[in-house]
């Protein structure tokens, strides 16, 4: 008999790491965009099926504990995704890039001294127009904000 689908109604469970030490760790690996979708089915790495029924506006954060059951728990992980990797030559260049990218309602992440920007043709064109050197890569992407909203 198949296990019933677990329904998740909160984006985070508050526990101490010590409480998890004896439990099997499992994870849901999602892109930045997928972490904003609060109503859908997901599968964990171990193949467990979960139904997300989160409050409107919820955002799943990498590292957060999503669910704790008897004997196992689920943590949110950021999936590697296509990004443009930019190492600004100066603080001024970093601000200019952030302004131009944000002005187009595109999210931006920071990883040490690198800016991470979702890889899409319009952003590639923008960076080329600005004369900014970049590399294409795969990296977990965590935007600095949830993106622009007109609310």
Structure notes:
- The chain is built from 3 helices and 10 strands.
- It is α+β, with helices and mostly antiparallel strands and 151 residues long.
- It folds into 2 domains: 6-78, Urease metallochaperone UreE, N-terminal domain (HSP40/DNAj peptide-binding domain); 80-140, Alpha-Beta Plaits (2-Layer Sandwich), CATH 3.30.70.790.
- The strands form 3 sheets. Strands 8-9-7-10 form a 4-stranded antiparallel beta sheet, with no helix packed on it. A 3-stranded mixed beta sheet has the order 1-4-3, with no helix packed on it.
- A hairpin with a 2-residue loop joins strand 5 and strand 6.
List the main descriptive attributes of the protein structure presented here.
HSP40/DNAj peptide-binding domain; three-stranded mixed beta sheet; 151 residues; Alpha-Beta Plaits; 3 helices; 10 strands; alpha+beta
Can I get a quick summary?
The protein is an alpha+beta fold and 151 residues long. It is 18% helix and 35% strand. The protein folds into 2 domains: 6-78, HSP40/DNAj peptide-binding domain (Sandwich); 80-140, Alpha-Beta Plaits (2-Layer Sandwich).
């Amino acid at each position: 008999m198949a296990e019933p689908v677990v329904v998740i109604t909160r984006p985070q469970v508050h526990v101490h790491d010590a409480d998890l030490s004896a439990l099997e760790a499992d994870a849901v690996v999602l892109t930045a965009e997928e972490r904003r979708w609060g109503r859908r089915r997901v599968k964990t790495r171990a193949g467990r099926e979960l139904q997300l029924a989160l409050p409107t506006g919820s955002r799943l954060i990498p590292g957060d504990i999503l669910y704790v059951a008897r004997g196992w728990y689920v943590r949110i992980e950021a999936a590697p995704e296509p990004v443009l990797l930019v190492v600004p030559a100066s603080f001024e260049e970093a601000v200019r890039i952030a302004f131009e990218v944000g002005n187009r309602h595109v999210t931006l992440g920071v990883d040490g001294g690198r800016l991470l920007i979702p890889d899409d043709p319009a952003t590639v064109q923008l960076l080329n127009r600005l004369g900014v050197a970049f590399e294409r890569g795969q990296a977990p992407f965590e935007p600095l904000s949830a993106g622009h909203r007109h609310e």
